[in-house]
Every structure is written in C-alpha cells, then in structure tokens.
TrEMBL record, chain A:
Designated name of the protein: Sugar ABC transporter permease
BP GO terms, sorted: transmembrane transport
Similarity annotation: Belongs to the binding-protein-dependent transport system permease family.
Subcellular location: Cell membrane
The keyword Transmembrane appears for this protein: yes
Stretches that traverse the bilayer: 21-47, 86-107, 119-139, 166-188, 225-245, 276-297
TrEMBL record, chain B:
Annotated CDD domains: TM_PBP2
Species of the source: Actinomadura harenae
Family per record: Belongs to the binding-protein-dependent transport system permease family.
Keyword Zinc: no
Membrane topology summary: Multi-pass membrane protein
Keyword Iron-sulfur (UniProt): no
UniProt cross-references to Gene3D superfamilies, sorted A to Z: MetI-like
Official protein name in the record: Carbohydrate ABC transporter permease
Domain ABC transmembrane type-1: 70-261
Length: 303, 275
C-alpha cells in the first residue's frame, strides 16, 4: 500500500486535479452527516458508557466498567438472554420458512409466478399497525387464539402475563412480519442457479429431495450465510413489536436489548446503563457485520 | 394419477395454506374494524361480523389528528428518501469516477454508517438533536437520516459498471464534469434509483424508532407513533374496533403502493441485502 502511493500520485493528471473540488463536494453531504449522526454519537456512547453523570451528559465522572456491571445486574443479563433466545428462534423460523416457500415458488408450477406479493405485504406495511392486529388476536378471553384454544377444549393462555407465551407471541409476530424477505432473497438466489445442471439432474432421475440436498443446498451456501447475517441483525434490533405488544413484560420476559436501551435511556433516564447496553448492542452487531464484510470481500476477490 | 399432477397438487396446497396464513391477520383486522365493540369482546359471538359498522372507520379518523400524522409522514418519508437518493448518488458517483486524495478514507467513513446500527446510538443521537434544538422539527426528523451507507455503496457499484466511454466522448465535446454527471450518467441510474427509492421510502414511512426519539408532540408525530398513542387511548376506553379501524387506515395506503410497485420492491429487497 505504501509503495503504491507515489505511483498513484504520479498517475493523477491535471484533469484529475480539476475534478477534486467537485469530488469533495459530491461526497461531502454523506461523509459529514455520517460523522455527525453516526460516528460522533458512537464516540459519545463509548465515552459515556465509562462515565456516570446526569441525563444531560454533564458533570461526568469516570467509573470504568461500573455502568456495564450495573446494566448486567439491573436486568441487562436477562435482557441479553431474551435477545439471544428471540434472535435464534426468529432466525431459524424465518430462514426455514423463507427457504421452504422459495423452493415451492421456484417449483415451476403454472400460475404461481405472481404469488410473491402476499409474502412481501407483512414486510412493507407499518409494523405498529400489524402489531396491533397481533394484540387483538392474542388478547385474553376474547382474542381469536384463546377462543380457538377453548374451542378445542384446551386451557386459555394469558399471553400478556406469562413469560413463555409472551415471548412465543412476539417471536411469531416477528416471523410473520419478516419471513417474506427471506422468501424473496432465497428465490432470487435459486433463480441464479444454472438451470441446465438442474435439468440434467432430473433427467438422471434425481428426486426433488436429492436435487435439493446434493445440488441446490450446497450451491446456496453463500446466500444462506448472507441471509443469516441480515436476518440476525434484524432480530438483534427488534423493537417495534415489543413496544406495542408487551413493553418488555411480563417482568422482563420479552425485553430485548434495544428495548432496554430505549427504556433506560428515555423512560427511566439512566443514561449510564442505556449507554452500556447500546455499546454492547453495537459490538455484537459489529461482529455479525464483520462476518458479512469478510464474505463480501471474498466474493470481490473472486470477481 | 401421474406423478407430475401429484407434485403440482402438493405444491398448490402448501402454497395456498401459506398464503392463507400470511393474509389471515390482515383479513381479521378488516373484519374486526367494522364490528361493533360488543361483538369483539363477547367470546361467544360469531367470528364473522353480524352487523357491518362502516362508520367505525370515519369515527376512528375523527378521534385523532390522522390527517396531520399522514401529512407529517409524507413530508418525512419523501424528504428523507429524496435526500438519501441524492446524497448516495453523488457520493457513489464521486467514489466510482474521480480519483482524489483521501478517497479510501472518505469511502470508509461513508460506509461506516452501515457498521453502526442507528438503534445502538439512539441516546446520544437524541442528545445531539437536543443540542441543535432540532427536537420536534422537520429537519430533526429528516437530516439525520440522509446519509446512506447502503445508497453510497450501491450507487458506487452501479457507476463502476457504467461505460466510461460515454463520459469521455462528452468530455471531448467540451461538456463540464457536472454536466456529464447530470446528463450522461444520472439518467442511466434511473432503474436502480427506482428500486432503491421504493425500499428506502417504505423503510422511512414505517420507521418507528427514529421518530419516537426525535419528535413527541401530537403536531409533529408520524402515523406509526400516532397509532401507538391512539391505541393506548382506545384501550383505556376499550374501543377495540376503533383500534383495528385505525390500523386499517394506516395499512391501506401502503398496501396499495406495495401491490402497485411489487416488482420494484422485490428488486429493492434483493439490492438491500447487498447481494
């Protein structure tokens, strides 16, 4: 890299130099706004997560990792566990359903080409509105789910006051809302597989399962990794349905990391704990995004 | 029965079941929106509406400033999307076409937004907005959303793949760099812009967390926030039918856009995963 610099400078002609001003002008809005609204806040977050002070961020004093300890003690540990459980369930369900439906839509059966629309609708309509449907469906006593349960002779479940069912309810909502994205991504990936190879395999008598197991699945590995990363990031940042459906309750059973940041930062005004959790959320996302960059980098090398 | 027919029957059945399950909550919302409240809270009442209370929809509309909330959402989503597309296209173009000192560093800075999820930094961002006196303003809603790492990345990829000869020919004809960008290359990017634009627009329209920290007055809130406020008011009054009517009001415009722009949305989702 160092040895390339002088050559690069020599290569820059007068014509290049004429364009410098324009180039800086073009990149300025994006770079400046990224600095002001992403990088500066991140630095503030890291700095303040090591300090204690009031909500205005003034009169700070250094406390080392105490905010992190406080955060973990004040329900933060539980929150990280809930976030992990939610994310794992969400990723598994949305990816399995996404792949399954993409395979069905890709099965070359007449009349199914236009069928993608129903799967993208939950993804693109406002989540607050659809979460409200969920709270109606899962309402105690008169909600449709409880009416079905009692109709089947089973016990009714109070989804709002029991930890396990509350978490299941928000996972189901997240899955319903998001799996369409994985349908689209897997379908796009399936369409890029070489058709002649697939057809040759069917002529050779490979059944549907064998074709999937030995040909499509291995060829989809890169796509699966990418979809895994995107879905994990989405799961880690779950917020809206928690806000609308459970407010993190009952007793923290559905409090995700982002809801913790919001609740401690804006409702309980404990910036220290919120900053510590925010920093942790950033670091976890960074590891996941790092994986994605590494994968994209490898693909660029190949190209 | 021949094997192909069995195969088709299985595929149709599974797909039909999936479509029914996915669409059911929305159908349920529409049915509940026009029921009487008595029918909703009675666990023994029939599931299909016995009487159709179409007036629930205007009632819900009249109980809260939905017109204002829609107007705010349109302003926010349209301006933020236009800003993201413009800033992303300019930066992507410069990174792809020009060689200038500090390009690598600036490109890393521009993309760093992709590595810093907004959700992790909401507390300091709210503080910056407060310091700027931008809380409860349109600029506070719009400006922090304009820098788009995704837009910059995708437009750079796009312009890297655009034919260089077009610009060189125009340059020989004496066209300025600005004119080459605007009249030669920007029009080429129109299809990519449409796909990215619709996805960004829907994301901005549905954004709940950012408006939640940036604005809190009834006058400045967006539809999603207003709907959450409306829900808590109507829950205390146990007006469950009006909650579903309001959800219907919030969903229908987006639903129409989604159906009309289906192809672009599908393309945009694929672009958005940077694949």
């Amino acid at each position: 890299m160092v040895s390339r610099r002088p050559r690069a400078a020599a290569r820059r002609s007068r014509a290049d130099r004429r364009t410098w001003g324009l180039a800086y002008l073009f990149v300025a809005p994006t770079v400046l706004l990224t600095v002001v609204f992403s990088i500066v806040p991140l630095v503030m977050l890291g700095w303040r997560s090591l300090h204690k002070g009031n909500v205005f961020g003034t009169s700070l004093r250094f406390v080392g990792l105490r905010n992190y300890k406080d955060m973990l003690a004040e329900g933060g540990g539980r929150t990280l566990g809930v976030t992990a459980e939610y994310t794992v369930a969400f990723v598994l369900l949305t990816m399995l359903l996404g792949l399954g439906l993409a395979l069905l839509l890709n099965a070359r059966v007449p009349g199914t080409r236009r069928l993608r629309a129903p799967f993208i609708i939950p993804l693109v309509v406002p989540a607050v509105a659809t979460a409200l449907i969920w709270s109606n469906l899962f309402a105690p006593r008169f909600g449709l789910v409880n009416r079905l349960l009692s109709g089947l002779g089973l016990d009714e479940v109070d989804f709002m006051s029991r930890p396990g069912p509350a978490l299941a309810m928000v996972v189901l909502f997240g899955t319903w809302q998001f799996f369409g994205q994985n349908v689209i991504l897997y379908l796009a990936a399936l369409k890029t597989l070489p058709q002649d190879v697939m057809e040759a395999a069917s002529v050779d008598g490979a059944g549907g399962w064998q074709r999937f197991r030995h040909m499509q699945w291995p060829m989809l590995r890169r796509n699966t990794l990418l979809i895994l990363v995107v879905t994990t990031l989405t799961g880690l940042q779950t917020f809206t349905q928690i806000y609308v459906l459970t407010s993190g309750g009952p007793d923290g059973a559905t409090r995700t990391a982002l809801y913790y940041v919001y609740d401690d930062g804006f409702a309980k005004f404990d910036a220290g704990r919120a900053d510590a959790m925010g920093m942790l959320l950033f670091l976890i996302s960074l590891v996941v995004t790092g994986l994605q960059i590494a994968m994209l980098g490898r693909r660029d090398d190949r190209a | 029965m021949p094997r192909i027919l069995v195969h088709r029957a299985v595929v149709y059945t599974l797909l039909a079941a999936a479509v029914l399950i996915v669409m059911f909550p929305l159908v349920w919302m529409a049915l509940t929106a026009v029921k009487s409240n008595g029918q909703i809270i009675n666990p023994a009442a029939p599931l299909w509406p016995t009487e159709w209370h179409w007036s629930n929809i205007p009632d819900a509309w009249g109980k809260a400033p939905f017109a204002r909330w829609f107007a705010n959402t349109v302003v926010f989503a349209a301006a933020a999307t236009a800003g993201q597309l413009a800033a992303g296209m300019l930066a992507g173009y410069a990174f792809a076409m020009f060689d200038f000192p500090g390009r690598r560093l600036l490109f890393l800075l521009a993309l760093s937004g992709l590595m810093i999820p907004f959700s992790a930094i909401i507390v300091p961002v709210a503080q910056i907005l407060g310091d700027l006196h931008w809380l409860n303003t349109y600029q506070g809603l719009i400006v922090p959303n304009i820098a788009s790492g995704l837009g910059t990345f995708l437009f750079r990829q796009f312009f890297l793949g655009a034919p260089r000869q077009l610009g060189e020919a125009a340059r020989i004809d004496g066209a300025s760099e600005l004119r080459i960008f605007w009249q030669v290359y920007a029009p080429l990017a129109r299809p990519a812009t449409a796909a990215l634009g619709i996805i960004l627009f829907l994301q901005n329209w549905n954004n709940f967390l950012f408006p939640l920290i940036a604005v809190n007055t009834t006058k400045m809130q967006v539809v999603s926030q207003g709907l959450a406020v409306f829900q808590s008011q109507m829950t205390t009054q146990t007006q469950y039918n009006l909650i579903m009517s309001a959800s219907l009001i919030a969903i229908v415009p987006v639903l129409l856009v989604a159906v009309a722009a289906q192809r672009h949305i599908v393309e945009g989702i694929t672009l958005g995963a940077v694949d």
